[in-house]
Amino acid sequence: MKIGITCYPVVGGSGIIATELGQELAGRGHQVHFVSYALPFRLDKYRTNLYFHAVETTAYPLFKYPPYTLALSSRIADVARNYELDIVHVHYAVPHATCAYLASQMLAAQGSKLPKVITTLHGTDITLVGSDPSYFDITKFSINTSDGITAVSQHLADETAEVFGVQRHIRVVHNFFDQKRFGPNIGECSRCEFANEDEFLLAHVSNFRPVKRTLDVIEIFEKVANVLPAKLILIGEGPDTVLARRMIKRRNLTERVIFLGNQSRVEAVLPCADLFLLPSQEESFGLAALEALACGVPVIGTHGTGLVEVIDDGQDGFLLPIGDTTGMAEKAIELLKDRTRLSAFKSAAVDLSRKKFAQEKIVGEYEQYYEDVLNG
Ligand code: GMT
């Protein structure tokens, strides 16, 4: 198949999934064309069958905001026409589903071959951005006019149906990880860089937006560190970084918390950790949690989010109510104190994540979906 992929090229789960998917599809012999404003950040090696087409926007004094949406629509149409694409697969509905729709309309008007448009919903495109009154109608329209829609969890598919009143079927295709990249022994880090032999190592990776509840991470960690020798690694950056740093200082945890900022290869650090904390308010899936599990790190996450499809409560992690930092700390302490149980959780994390979310399996599900959409 000839497949166009549009995604956000910056750090973030939707861009990571789109990039890994494109690379794997190219490896399977499909011709893959990425269309975005920059090279996706994990597209870090040359591959046969894989192309990148940059979207250029022109600055002009009249434009307070250069119309990226128009430039992207034109570029998608251009690439689809030149390479006779079968599929245009856009990740994150806003504004990519709308751009793909516009591109299709342009192609139809020119009498060119029409690719099928597939939109993958990732989370905040529905829960935060898409449901904002400014974007609601156009997002709903663009979802409804796509030839196929996938969501990264059943939780998100249900939320989309509820929030947008979407009646049509949304195919659930979970996120995945690359086994060659994420595994318990694959990391290049040495644990001693971060913690002493007798200290437990906790970790958190996110974009430090309010939905991630990064301050809860620090709260949980403080409660754990009051009982057990422990260190915390924080990876990522975002609006709450300043608040997090302030809280760490106020609570005299500076010596115990290691800020690593944004990292393009989290798999080099994650295997060193004993426990991963993701106490999010909202999480359509929680790719960061999956990557931790794949590295053999149990995860503490929240009920009422897509994390319930990722974490097996009581086997490779724990699910607790949003905001229950005391309960989360108690579970963390209980697990860390019991070496035998901790090691069973670590093994289960590797086994269950491989069984449910291995790249080979999930990319096959996308291929199957492409076929289904192409065959009407
Ligand atoms: O809003 C974000 O947190 C970023 C967004 C993204 O574009 O990376 O994350 C969403 O998509 C990821 C990949 O499918 C999911 O793993 C995250 O759970 C989801 N974030 C939220 O739902 C908050």
| Overall strand count | 13
Rounded to an integer in angstroms, the radius of gyration calculated over CA atoms is 21 Å
What is the second-level CATH architecture of the largest domain?
Answer: 3-Layer(aba) Sandwich
Helices and strands, in order, run as EHEEHEHEHHEHEEHEHEEHEEHHH
* Oligomer state of the chains in this structure: single chain
Q: What class would the helix/strand composition place it in?
A: alpha/beta
Instruction: Quote the beta fraction.
Output: 15-25%
> How far is the first residue's CA from the last residue's CA?
16 Å
CATH topology type of the largest domain = Rossmann fold
CATH class of the largest domain: Alpha Beta
Concise structural overview:
With 376 residues, the chain is α/β, with parallel strands linked by helices.
Note the topology.
Elements: E1 2-6, H1 13-27, E2 31-36, E3 50-54, H2 68-83, E4 87-91, H3 93-110, E5 116-121, H4 124-127, H5 136-145, E6 148-151, H6 154-164, E7 171-172, E8 200-205, H7 214-225, E9 230-235, H8 241-250, E10 257-261, E11 275-277, H9 287-294, E12 299-302, E13 317-320, H10 325-337, H11 339-357, H12 359-374
Parallel strand pairs: 1-2, 1-4, 2-3, 4-5, 5-6, 6-7, 8-9, 8-11, 9-10, 11-12, 12-13
Helix pairs in contact: 2-3, 3-5, 7-10, 9-11
The structure holds ligand GMT.
